[in-house]
Amino acid sequence: MSIPVLMYHHILPKEGFITSSIENFEKQMKYLHENGYKTLTSDEFYRFKKGEFEAPKKSVFITFDDGWRDNIIYAYPVLKKYNLKATIFLVTEWIDKASEKKEEFTPLKHNTCKKIVQTDPAKVVMNWNEVEKCKDIFDYHSHTATHRDFYYEKLSWQEDLALSCKTIKQRLGIEEKHLCWPRGSYDDKLVKLAQDVGYEILYTIKRGVNKPDNNLTHIKRISMKKDDKWLRKNILIFSNNILGSLYAKIKSI
């Protein structure tokens, strides 16, 4: 058995680069709900990978990267409507900066968001109050402190990973185990460094299967696109150990 891990970034009125439209996102979540899928929490997925939790056959794990504010404006109500759970990987320094003042939400494309987050992050990134208010649907984990963009300060990898871990502990009371690599960029040295800091389960942007094999260092995810029909096809592929492995290998060639 393999559990597909779904990867989202933005949910906005119109589809775009690493962006799902509200319409297609709702179609996908409705499909999961109507077809009896369990959406795992991060702890359930972690324990599944370690072989300590027997997940239902029809299970998926929904993830969002970065902590964009549109996740709570547009994705949260849909997830709540269908009683589904998800995880957001937060860039903790962005969340800190967004929490310094209040701003009206502005739905913007990804490239514009990356510019706005440098000067006025509260418009496009979640703040800690919003993080807290949405804990009935979302749980939260680390996407590093800076996303390695260094908009506010330049940190070494060790400082970056340790700061994110510390912030998650202070803000959410979590002994952090989960880390999602920015842009999916990492190597063996970084894996070892992350483990030394205390992270145990590491998320990539590579497609593939996730079996209960206690291999926690290379979690595979599916970058989400299109509508419920596309979702159905990919869940069927990546729920199957053999088919999912072959498909990921062919697509990577």
Would you give an account of this structure?
The protein is an alpha/beta fold. 42% of the residues lie in helices and 15% in strands. The chain is built from ten helices and ten strands. Strands 1, 4, 5, 6, 7 and 10 form a six-stranded parallel beta sheet that branches. Strands 2-3 form a two-stranded parallel ribbon. Helix 1 (22-34) packs across helix 9 and helix 7 (157-172) runs parallel beside helix 8.
Pick out its properties.
253 residues, alpha/beta, TIM Barrel, six-stranded parallel β-sheet, two-stranded parallel sheet, 10 strands, globular
Quick overview of this protein structure:
Helices cover 42% and strands 15% of the residues.
- The CATH homologous superfamily name equals Glycoside hydrolase/deacetylase
CATH topology name: TIM Barrel
Distance between the termini: 24 Å
| Assigned CATH class | Alpha Beta
Count structural domains: 1
Provide the succession of SSEs: EEEHEHEHEHHHEHEHEEHH
CATH architecture classification name:
Alpha-Beta Barrel
Q: Indicate the radius of gyration in whole angstroms.
A: 17 Å
Q: Output mean pLDDT.
A: 97
Figure out the total of helices. Answer: 10
Which structural category fits the helices and strands?
Answer: alpha/beta
Unreliable spans = none
**Number of DSSP-assigned strands:** 10
